[in-house]
């Protein structure tokens, strides 16, 4: 079977993924440009690009660590929930992809190059985020509700 | 399939945590089995039966809908 990372990577992923996402969002909102102006840097392009790349790959690593790290006790039920969550995420991703392509098809000015790349990146990340959310929701919340 | 794991566990005065530790599974797995949301594998069923010194048939009962 595919080897999973040890449980400590889940804690690392929990810290790293939000940091990466925040960095990327800050760059998109123009905070990095404002910061570079304050620092007296005239051309903020390189700084913006660096923060964007750093943020994106940090987020990607965090997501990877969250998705591929073991639970404290990795037993047969956890493996079953993992598989179900993968199937659920794959189905949702397919629906999202079909809807996204349909929306793009009806656009007057459909996105090109960077826009298509962004769409595909979001589609891939959508799969991982859906998987992580569904898996952790079942393991840490829904199962404990069965008790009540 | 219905099961009597919860009833037998309470009769034997074993906690979910103790049972989970004995079986080397998570507490979530015990909760899922007891609530009938998860049907354990043959190996785990046999382990549960061994823990309670009983048979698998007395813990897990097939229902008409299983056929």
TrEMBL record, chain B:
Domain of life: Bacteria
Annotated HTH cro/C1-type domain residues: 5-59
UniProt name for this protein: Repressor protein
Gene3D superfamilies: lambda repressor-like DNA-binding domains
Stored Pfam families: HTH_3
GO molecular function, one term: DNA binding
Keyword Protease among UniProt keywords: no
Organism name: Croceibacter atlanticus (strain ATCC BAA-628 / JCM 21780 / CIP 108009 / IAM 15332 / KCTC 12090 / HTCC2559)
Keywords assigned by UniProt, alphabetized: DNA-binding
Keyword Oxidoreductase: no
């Amino acid at each position: 079977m595919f080897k999973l990372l040890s449980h400590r990577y889940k804690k690392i992923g929990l810290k790293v993924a939000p940091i990466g996402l925040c960095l990327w969002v800050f760059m998109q909102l123009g905070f990095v440009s404002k910061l570079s102006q304050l620092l007296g840097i005239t051309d903020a392009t390189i700084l913006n690009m660096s923060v964007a790349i750093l943020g994106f790959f940090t987020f990607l690593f965090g997501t990877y660590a969250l998705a591929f790290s073991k639970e404290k006790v990795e037993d047969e039920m956890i493996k079953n929930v993992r598989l179900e969550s993968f199937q659920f995420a794959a189905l949702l991703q397919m629906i999202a992809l079909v809807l996204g392509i349909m929306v793009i098809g009806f656009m007057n000015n459909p996105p090109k190059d960077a826009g298509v790349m962004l769409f595909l990146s979001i589609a891939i990340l959508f799969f991982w985020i859906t998987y992580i959310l569904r898996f952790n929701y079942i393991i840490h919340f829904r199962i404990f509700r069965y008790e009540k | 399939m219905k099961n009597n794991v919860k009833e037998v566990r309470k009769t034997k005065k074993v906690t979910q945590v103790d049972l989970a530790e004995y079986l080397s599974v998570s507490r979530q797995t015990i909760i899922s089995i007891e609530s009938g949301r998860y049907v354990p594998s043959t190996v785990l069923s046999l382990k549960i039966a061994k823990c309670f010194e009983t048979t698998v048939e007395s813990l897990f009962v097939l229902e008409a809908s299983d056929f």
